[in-house]
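ping. complex inputs:
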Amino acid sequence: MTPVLGAYRVMKTFGHVRALRHASFEAFPGEVTALVGDNGAGKSTLTKVLSGVYSPDEGEVRIDGNPVRLSDPHDAKARGIETVYQDLALAPDLDAAGNVFLGRELRRFGILHNHPEMRRRTATAFRDLGVGLVQDMRAPVAEFSGGQKQSVAIARAAMWATKVIIMDEPTAALGVIQTAKVLELVERIRDKGIAVVFISHNLPQVLQVADRIEVLRLGARVARFRRGEADVDRLIAAISGAYANEESS
Amino acid sequence: MTQTKPPAETESQEPVTPSVPFVRALLRNPTMVTFAVLLGIIAAFSILAPDTFTQRSNFVQLAQNVAILTVVSVGTTFVIITAGVDLSIPSGIVLGEVFAVHALQLIGTGGDTTAADVAADQTKGWYMLVALAGALLAGLIIGTINGLVVAYLKVPPLLATLGTLGAGLGAALILQNGVNTATYALDPLGHGSWIAAVPNLIPIALVVVVAGFILLHMAVFGRHTFAIGSNPEAARRAGINVERHLLKVYIIGGVSAGFAGFLSVAYFSTTSIGGHSTDNLQAITAVALGGTSLFGGVGSIIGTLIGVWIPAVLKNGFVITGVQPYWQDVAVGLVLIVAVWFDQLRRRTRNRG
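pong. complex structure:
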């Protein structure tokens, strides 16, 4: 199977800091691919290369096997790659539909927005994804709990992503039950055939939700696991450099 | 309060249910509070002065008095919703007046006279259009400078517009050599009534209100204005060109001031280069009274309309009932503080994350 999104031998240098040294990464449709690594391993830089924020100094990004140059995040979005940032990037005073359609409003007569239709489509999409917000579609998202806000941000990405959703620490700020809800949401999105890139420090959670795990260390991929091949100890070994199953260059 | 409700703070995905629905509804919609205040004031004066205050002519007079302030307050609503502020309104108005008169002076009517000198019954429709173009140009210039400085140079709006306030008023004085110019060319507009004996300023202000309502609450433009005021980074990541949008919002603020200047010349038959100096504060007061948040992201045109009326009704009512009208300033100041405190309270209760 061809990876829907891949990075191959990517180099990225900031001044004297080599954030990525021939880092590679692959995500497949209908799979949750976890990206793990210690602080400074290059996760964040790699994520930004994949979502179009940075362009690589060397190496290439491929979508469906075809090399692409992503000029900016909007370019990535236009190609079906959505990113859920850690700070969610929601406008708290707008309601859920306002946020979901922000910048992509449905229009009437060219300049007016068609809010009822946006609200309807948002409610339908939330219902499909099992996000239980449909009753409160008129409230500004500022009134939502942290988990609900996270759900809105993820559901927004899910509504627009045709290929890949990149999630940066989607459960970092959430309680236990909210986390479970968000992980369920991640699985439902995966089951729709979308590739989910899941960045997290929480290894038990990664083992629970990920179909594949890729480990980044010092700016390069050092290990890859399929579901069931890894446990917490082996992941920690890979993250800390004691284990590798891949030729690092 | 005897209803059984699930506890408000649950970890479930259920919507958060307000513990006291009425209070929550009020907090969510501060416009209703202000509207109740306005109705209360009107009711009080209607009881105190039933013969004079409630007359139709009194309300028509009131509506005419607030027309010019209404126009600039609509523009100011957009600016404040972006978490900005426009102090330069007086310079927009005064420059609008000056440009309108100068535009009239460019039109010769044969001999030594210009369109600015014509008598009220000899003016022509296109003279007024030329004056309008001049006034709007002045507003466009002020608004564009504000927008460029705020959006692209990232100068805080308070200081950017304080700068254009001084500069614009100075420019007006220079252009006028420090003296006002009288003109009757716009009198049919300022003193006529084309529709059902209602002074023209009222339907004109109404058109501005309706246009502002559509642009803010029904158009994509307004949606983006709210989004930028709410979280500019979210707007940027959603693909909105935040800087360009802010520029447009400040242009709306400037052009509304320029248009108000045009109406001012029409109504007072002269420029007023020393006047309008507190119109910016009056507009900000009206907007804040109407429930628009100075922190951005929240606001409404209807609220602004109510906010314009509260001080006007107070002043009018005090005059009619023989109370010293200066009490209006005291009352408006207190109401303003309560309104903004309400806004703070609302933000605190909902930002529980």
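Residues 125-152 of chain B form the longest helix (28 residues).
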